[in-house]
Design a protein that fits this description.
The chain has about 110 residues and is an alpha+beta fold. It has two helices and nine strands. It comes from Sphingobacterium yanglingense.
Length: about 110
């Protein structure tokens, strides 16, 4: 299961409002090959379920992961930072044995 912080929830709700997404949309989180540490995080909004999708919900936000990503992201917390050193979603992944300096890729 992926959990989200209150700041991430606020930002997700703002994006949904700004983009005028209806209640059929959910947050899709995925892991793909790439990045300087080998695996990269991806986050987008989607309203189409795909075969093998795994769903969880936290703080009223529906989160979708494909089965491969689910294995890498179990226990991960999604946060949002709007600080001076960077703005955007951040993944706090207990399964990552190494992350790159920018936090956008990891390895297990």
């Amino acid at each position: 299961m992926v959990t989200i912080t209150d700041k991430a929830k606020e930002r997700i709700l703002q994006v949904i409002k700004d983009e005028q997404y209806d209640e059929s949309y959910f947050v899709r989180v995925a892991v793909t090959s790439g990045g300087c540490s080998g695996l990269s995080y991806h986050l987008n909004f989607d309203n189409e379920e795909k075969k093998g999708d795994q769903f969880c919900e936290d703080k009223g936000i529906k989160i979708c992961l494909d089965i491969k990503s689910y294995l890498y992201l179990a226990g991960t917390e999604l946060d949002y930072s709007d600080g001076l050193t960077g703005k955007g979603f951040e993944f706090h992944n207990p399964n990552a044995s190494r992350t790159c300096a920018c936090g956008e890729s990891f390895s297990v």
